[in-house]
Amino acid sequence: MLLLIILLTSKTVHSQRANGLYGTYPYLSSFVFSFGPALISSDIGDVQYNMKDPMYNLSLAYQRLYYSNWGLGLKLSHEHYSGHDPDNSVRGFSFSSYIYGLGFQVKRIILGGPFAAIRTNHTLYGFAGVDAFLVTGNFPTARNSSDNVIVGLGFDGLASLGGGYQYRINNRWDVGLEFDAGISFLDHLDGFTRAGSAVNDMLTGVNITLTYKFKGRKINQGRCNCE
Q1: 37-64 pLDDT, tens per residue?
Q2: Which of 42, 118, 140, 144 has CA atoms 20 to 30 A from the CA of 212?
Q3: Dist CA 29 CA 64 (whole Å)
Q4: Residue 17: its pLDDT value, please?
């Protein structure tokens, strides 16, 4: 009888360790790498995606998802945007800017996730974020006029909203698709500011995400959407 109790206890402990990534932890920490095409809506009259000078967004984030299905994250990003005035424009302005950012995000799981009450490999979520940017602008053509202020090297910020989908490959890895859109604080993302502009620069992007998950803090019991 004692031997049977020992064997059953050992099996239970082994099972908890195997699934301990989720079931015995009140939060889950992860690294998220994302990459994809992006677009800018700026003071330039004609911003088009150009395969010879592609616009893109790369980021690496640390995220912590809590048992309540709310999460927090810190993100490092590198982005590139370009554009030009229409060919018949008197101004004849074009730009190519590289952006380096540090961001903070709040995430909310809408469906699924590691602490879901049901077993599912699918996760839907939304998020809101704030980013601080260092912007470096390059201007192959620029005809200055009194209503344009060329920034070149400067700082800006971005407030954004977005959402995404993740598919769980296993207890460690997820792959997904994410969409986000944001508006800048200072109108510097294209490297210059136009006096009297009614709308600041806006960014949109669609990213492929790859998530690696690792452990957090233990709890005694709880929901576990795990293998």
Answers
A1: 988 877 655 455 455 567 899 999 999 9
A2: 118
A3: 4
A4: 43
Domains of the chain: 26-214 (2.40.160.20)
pLDDT digits (tens, 9 = 90+) for 1-24: 544 443 344 444 344 444 455 445
Q: Which of 108, 123, 113 is nearest to 224 (CA)?
A: 113
Instruction: State residue 8's pLDDT score.
Output: 41
Amino acid, single-letter form, for residue 54: P
Q: Note the pLDDT tens digit of each residue in 114-154.
A: 888 888 899 999 999 999 999 887 765 555 555 555 666 78
Angle at 121 between CA 117 and CA 126, to 5 degrees: 80
Q: Is 171 exposed, middle or buried (0-12, 13-18, 19+ CB in 10 A)?
A: middle
CA distance 131 to 97: 16
Long-range Cβ contact pairs of 16-22 (< 8 A, separation 24 or more): 19/171, 19/224, 19/226, 19/227, 20/215, 20/218, 21/114, 21/171, 21/172, 21/213, 21/214, 21/215, 21/226, 22/114, 22/115, 22/171, 22/224, 22/225, 22/226
Q: DSSP letters of 86-132? A: -TT-SS--EEEEEEEEEEEEEEEEEE--TT-SS--SEEEEEEEEEEE
Element (H, E) at 15: helix 2-18
Cα–Cα distance list, 121 to 10, 106, 112, 118, 202 (Å): 29, 22, 7, 10, 33
Task: Provide the token pair at 183.
Answer: 């508006």
